Q: What sequence folds into this?
């Protein structure tokens, strides 16, 4: 059951126990039947999704979807594999925007030189998402679309003020990260939309960011994860602050009030402490198998403080 | 209590399980002919899309060196190389490997001679029951190609997706380090010989 709850909350695990009986009988976990289609263009993929509506599901890395299909907690009549669509996997910078293709694997982000020099916060996350083997396959787009409240990339895109690009039957639209997450496992993406790109404004010269995650063991989802990206103006005044929280609520959370508390102030131990306190006060984290709500809340404060400090230290190094 | 909702496509409340059972979809289009090069040999089979790669390897091709541990993509026992990357074959469908190349533990030994990583696991007592070993070795194989001179810390991180219930990892880490060293010195010898 512990393994199951790596993916799911307690409530679901109870449901699973019922299912487990069925698995015990069959001794293996086989998904329901489905048809597999592997379109070679975005256009074809979108029209397949439109044709089959809610019966279709997108398959990216499959590292969340396939385990859930095996547990029969998710199923689809049609699986639309987007891995054969060209030009969905890249990391590049164009006109002060860093663009990441939705199909870029966690490991590719972790190995990116551009990320290392411009957005080391991305390397922090890429080295703690899941485990090294899952990172070879899982994609950033899949993780965002899956919208696990404890997922790492959600906190990151919120802290970085990213925009997410989705393509659907009506063409392309951009969704601000702050508006992307609706609820647990639920995003603004429609059933016929494909997430294609993550756009992050290139960070200013005097900026720094970090992501710290509290986890029970490697490969586990965060008890709490905090992402922070800050930029300083003259005299050490904070001009930009982005803070994203994982594991702190029903969805990835942008700590807007804590960000506001930092902007316009000189960065100091005091201001960091205050922001960390505000960040924790404004969350109502869930209790589950990983931790109690109280512990999570306390850790949001500790980790916001540490992450902000780490972001500052990084800036000093640059 | 965690108030997490379950994924959108899950069954609505109140419907019996029977109503959710496998839906009938016409049998045409259901199966796919796939061609996968496994350990250098081209293999062909007609498979249902829901057949997992690990079942294709074990049950269709009868290569049972790749193990199934957790079946929930947590333990790494089923790790093999797909198109040059270590993947958990219990979390990939066989159809996804169509046209690709797979390397399993059976493909490592050449001409009756063990691969240096296998050799190092043997020499360093890097296994007890051996259940995790194929996965560990395939992960190490992928890792050592990218990092030929790893630190102990890097080795520990690299195998962190592979669980072992017996060894306490000490000797596995030693084995991977020893394999790295023997592969490095073999390389040096080969280059020296070429000169
Ligand atoms: C053992 C294990 C540990 C893990 N630990 C962590 C962790 O610590 N932190 C973490 O963040 N994640 C973790 N994960 C999840 C991992 O990051 C997955 O890779 C990720 O959540 C899903 O990405 P994927 O590409 O595999 O997507 P898939 O599994 O293919 O898809 C996930 C969902 O997103 C949809 N989808 C996929 N791509 C798109 C797209 N481009 N547009 C629209 N919808 C799309 C799918 O239809 C599906 O509903 C873990 C997974 C495993 C197996
Ligand atoms: S059997 Fe595949 S990861 Fe455990
Ligand atoms: S040797 Fe027994 S599980 Fe690793």
A:
């Amino acid at each position: 059951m512990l393994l199951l709850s790596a993916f799911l909350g307690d409530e679901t695990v109870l449901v699973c126990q019922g299912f487990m009986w069925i698995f015990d009988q069959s001794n293996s976990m086989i998904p329901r039947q489905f048809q597999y289609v592997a379109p070679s263009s975005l256009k074809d993929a979108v029209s397949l999704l439109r044709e089959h509506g809610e019966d279709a599901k997108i398959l990216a890395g499959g590292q969340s979807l396939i385990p859930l299909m095996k547990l029969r907690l998710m199923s689809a009549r049609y699986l639309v594999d987007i891995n054969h669509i060209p030009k969905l996997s890249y990391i590049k910078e164009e006109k002060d925007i860093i663009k990441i293709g939705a199909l870029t694997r966690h490991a590719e982000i972790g190995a990116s030189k551009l990320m290392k020099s411009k957005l080391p916060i991305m390397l922090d996350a890429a080295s703690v998402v899941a485990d090294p083997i899952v990172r070879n396959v899982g994609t950033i787009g899949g993780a965002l679309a899956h919208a696990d409240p404890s997922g790492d990339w959600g906190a990151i895109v919120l802290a970085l003020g990213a925009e997410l690009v989705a393509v659907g039957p009506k063409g392309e639209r951009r969704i601000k990260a702050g508006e992307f997450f609706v609820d647990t496992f639920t995003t603004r993406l429609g059933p016929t939309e494909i997430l294609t790109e993550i756009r992050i404004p290139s960070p200013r010269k005097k900026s720094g960011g970090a992501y710290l995650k509290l986890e029970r063991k490697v490969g586990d989802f965060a008890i709490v994860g905090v992402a922070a990206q800050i930029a300083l103006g003259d005299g050490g005044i904070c001009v930009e602050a982005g803070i994203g929280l994982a594991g702190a609520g029903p969805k990835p959370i942008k700590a807007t009030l804590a960000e506001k508390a930092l902007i316009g102030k000189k960065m100091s131990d005091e201001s960091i402490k205050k922001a960390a306190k505000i960040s924790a006060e404004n969350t109502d984290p869930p209790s589950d198998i990983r931790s109690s709500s109280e512990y999570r809340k306390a850790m949001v404060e500790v980790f916001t403080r540490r992450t902000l400090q780490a972001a500052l230290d990084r800036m000093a190094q640059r | 209590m965690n108030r997490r909702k379950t994924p959108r496509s899950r069954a609505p409340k109140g419907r019996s399980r029977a109503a959710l059972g496998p839906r009938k979809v016409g049998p045409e289009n259901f199966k796919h002919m796939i061609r996968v090069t496994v350990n250098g040999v081209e293999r062909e089979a007609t498979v249902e899309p829901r057949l997992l790669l690990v079942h294709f390897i074990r049950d269709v091709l009868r290569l049972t060196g790749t193990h199934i541990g957790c079946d929930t993509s947590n333990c790494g026992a089923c790790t093999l190389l797909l198109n040059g990357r270590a993947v958990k074959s219990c979390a990939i469908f066989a159809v996804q490997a169509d046209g690709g190349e797979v390397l399993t533990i059976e493909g490592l030994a050449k001409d009756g001679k063990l691969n240096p990583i296998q050799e190092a696991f043997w020499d360093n007592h890097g296994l007890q029951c051996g259940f995790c070993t194929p996965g560990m070795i395939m992960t190490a194989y992928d890792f050592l190609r990218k990092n030929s001179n790893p630190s102990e810390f890097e080795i520990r991180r690299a195998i962190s997706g592979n669980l072992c219930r017996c060894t306490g990892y000490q000797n596995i880490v030693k084995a991977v380090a020893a394999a790295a060293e023997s592969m490095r010195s073999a390389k040096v010898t080969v280059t020296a010989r070429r000169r």
